[in-house]
Amino acid sequence: MPATRVRGGHGMGLPERLEQASHKAMDVLNEGMGETNDDPDLVALHRMRNEAAKTIITTQRQVDDAALRMKQQDDLNEMLQLVLKRKAELEQEGDL
């Protein structure tokens, strides 16, 4: 079954927008790892940006995990159908 495509307001689907945001979030976190600024205003800003980035990455992980579970379920259903088909073939041949 094809995935439902939900469109955002910019001609890009929400999954694509989330993936794009995830890449930006990784950039934010990578930049933050090298920051050594002690300015309290900048520290607060960096903290907020890092929290937003972590939220985006967590959301992407959850979406990826759900997609993987769906794929695994589809694969298991396909394998079951193949086993049942082969079983029926063997029963018709009298081998079972």
Task: Present the secondary structure layout.
Elements: H1 14-33, H2 40-93
Helix pairs in contact: 1-2
In short:
With 96 residues, this protein is mostly helical. Helix content is 77%, strand content 0%.
Core attributes:
rod-shaped, mainly alpha
Give an account of the 3D structure.
This protein has helices at residues 14-33, 40-93. The protein has 96 residues and is an all-alpha fold. Helix 1 packs across helix 2 (40-93).
Tell me, rounded to a whole number, the average pLDDT.
86
Which band does the percent of strand residues land in?
under 5%
For the sheet with most strands, the description reads: none
In DSSP terms (H or I, runs of 4 or more residues), the helix count works out at: 2
Would you count the extended β strands for me?
A: 0
Structural class: mainly alpha
The poorly predicted ranges are none
Shape by Cα distribution: rod-shaped
Cα end-to-end separation = 34 Å
Q: Helix and strand string, N-terminal first?
A: HH
Q: Helical residue percent? A: over 70%
Instruction: Tell me the radius of gyration.
Output: 23 Å
